[in-house]
Amino acid sequence: MIATNEIQDLKKEKILEAAHQRFLHYGYSKTTMNEIAGDLCMSKALLYYYFPDKSQLYADVMRRVADEYLEILKRRVNTFCDLKEAFEFQINSQHEFILKNYNFFDFFRLNEQNLPGMIWDIVTKVHQTEKEMLVNAIQAECIKGKIKAVDNPEEIVELLLDALHGVRMSALSNKKNMFPDMEHMDEIRKKRLLMSEIFIKGLMYQVE
């Protein structure tokens, strides 16, 4: 016999999956709790029993989406041949992740200047995992002797990530939306790859 908690967990998983598909295809702004309940043949009251509002439901779906991305990153830690491969992997993986979930992220376009704390927690976790992956790549190159040992790899990677974020901002400097339009995504990716190449050359220049 299935326990009550297991039944509730299964229902919650089904809700999260249905909501993910709605957010993915129609975006946050064009998805209603009524539609999600309808997709599941569930009463709206029961849906609200599990999730008190749409923003909480979105945050829980985002955790699932982010966890999939984090798993991709974690599988590659300490597997790179060199810094170029590591930095290109981070830039390209993030680019593909955003494209794959582009409509899902319309929540950011609507709320980027006032994101809820629960969303910022997820964003911070993703940022930290990306940072750790690149720090490990730099440390591995130091051990190989391909770059000079550095005392502050965390600060160096943080600077790079800030610079890559700045590339996005410069691409949007004359636009009202802070989250990039689809048409600007490839331009941003190319500029970030160029920025990382310059950054790598700077690190390698230190080798005596």
Automatic annotation (TrEMBL):
Task: List the GO molecular function terms.
Answer: DNA binding
Entry's Pfam families?
A: TetR_N
Q: Which domain of life is it from?
A: Bacteria
Q: Which PANTHER family match?
A: ACREF/ENVCD OPERON REPRESSOR-RELATED, ACREF_ENVCD OPERON REPRESSOR-RELATED
Q: What is this protein called?
A: TetR/AcrR family transcriptional repressor of mexJK operon
